[in-house]
Automatic annotation (TrEMBL), chains A, B:
Its EC number is 4.3.99.3. GO terms for molecular function: 4 iron, 4 sulfur cluster binding; carbon-nitrogen lyase activity; magnesium ion binding; S-adenosyl-L-methionine binding. Mg(2+) binds at T41. NCBIfam families: Bsubt_queE. It catalyses: 6-carboxy-5,6,7,8-tetrahydropterin + H(+) = 7-carboxy-7-carbaguanine + NH4(+). Keywords: 4Fe-4S, Iron, Iron-sulfur, Lyase, Magnesium, Metal-binding, Queuosine biosynthesis, S-adenosyl-L-methionine. [4Fe-4S] cluster binds at C32, C36, C39. This is 7-carboxy-7-deazaguanine synthase. It comes from the Bacteria. Residues 19-235 form the Radical SAM core domain. Substrate binds at I13, Q14, G15, R28, S79. The keyword Thylakoid does not apply. Its cofactor is [4Fe-4S] cluster; S-adenosyl-L-methionine; Mg(2+).
Length: 239, 239
């Protein structure tokens, strides 16, 4: 059962979501069932990059995690692409045995029984601006698969007013989930322009806009967080 | 029992620490037993600003919080100065009755029985660069006062290598506390220069330095977070 690996890097800090600031090693899988308009990791999504993805088994992935972490237990962040497409049971079982913790981020389009083995699961259904459709049944299957022992949170990317309205309605249906809103990076890096410079003023303006929306609407449950790695490392890969 | 109030403002987001990104109203008390070299809120610390601090009772503070929050329950962040110098029992009792949650930040130099009524307590003992001394006995009295029902975290500001070494040693003595490291703002606003412009490149360089230290030392428990409000609002007051 091999896992398609796009990249393994770190340790660095988690730049977004509920675990923002936590030291972590990222394991990015290759392959995705979505193709979001503003995707910032197309090199882990588009089939034309498939040749760059290495098939690795759980032991091989953990050997690399341990090499990077210096053999110390660390938070491993599973990202993609959509890591929910991969067979990760063995990675979670072996990794927990070595003391690692596991957080995963997925759009919630595919549930796996092993979600319940994760320490943290960030469900990040994609808003209208992505061009993708929300499938409630599949999303709820992900919630059910995570069960009570996995800390689940909802992270919604907001590019515009329509996304914001969508997020308000969606979040209201899941009051039990901690909620993070994240302004969409208006200038994501692409395989063609990996060094594209992000304008920090523009990112900050998007963040201020979102804070103003949330406070004006008295939506005090909604935590607003930027992508810290974009602010501090400017879209660079591998950090 | 009146509370010395420097300012009440919001709602905005919490810019730092474990609750980073949470919508909140800030209640800043006036008066402090410390005088840190890099203090960014001298207007709530130095006795020469005492005439600006209003004595308010708990009902008056809550009336202002409710006006700002539109009457909705919200996270109230008690900051200073050192809010631990104030009589806050009644504020916490009445505020909880209205559905508000309370987070407080203090250096841990003075314990109060009402710490156990807080929802979140951030203890932020000051590092050597502040010019202040750490008093372990008082710090542990704060921990004891908080008890088991208050979520306590440790937030340590790091200006230089000496601060970093101090933080490593201190945090090791309290492995049970969630830990946040925060790079010191090298150019805090002052009453004389409230509009002082912070150089985002310099702030980012301090953050990158701290991430590199933590990961090189495999200190994976240490969450590294910036002061988001400084990055996005540039030291401005009242946001």
């Amino acid at each position: 059962m091999s896992i398609a690996i796009s990249e393994i890097f770190g340790p660095t800090i988690q730049g977004e979501g509920r675990l923002i600031g936590m030291p972590t090693v990222f394991v990015r899988t290759g392959g995705c069932d979505f193709r979001c308009s503003w995707c910032d990791t197309l090199y882990a999504v588009e089939p034309r990059f498939k040749a760059d993805w290495r098939p690795m088994d759980a032991g091989g992935v953990l050997a690399e995690v341990n090499r990077l972490s210096g053999g110390e237990p660390i938070l491993v962040t599973l990202s993609g692409g959509n890591p929910a497409l991969q067979p990760l049971t063995e990675l979670l079982r072996l990794g927990h045995g070595q003391g690692h913790a596991f957080a995963m981020e997925t759009q919630g389009s595919k549930a796996q029984a092993w979600f319940g083995m994760l320490d943290h699961l960030t469900l990040s259904p994609k808003p209208p601006s992505s061009g993708m459709a929300f499938n409630r049944e599949r999303f709820e299957a992900c919630l059910a698969a995570a069960g009570a022992d996995t800390q689940v949170s909802l992270k919604l990317v907001i590019a515009d007013e329509a996304d914001y309205r969508w997020a308000r309605a969606l979040a209201a249906d899941y009051p039990q989930l901690p909620l993070v809103l994240q302004p969409c990076n208006p200038t994501p890096a692409t395989p063609e322009q990996p060094e594209l410079t992000t304008d920090p003023e523009r990112l900050n303006a998007r963040l201020r806009w979102l804070v103003e929306k949330v406070t004006a609407d008295r939506w005090y449950r909604a935590r607003v967080l930027p992508q810290l790695h974009v602010l501090i490392w400017n879209n660079e890969r591998g950090v």
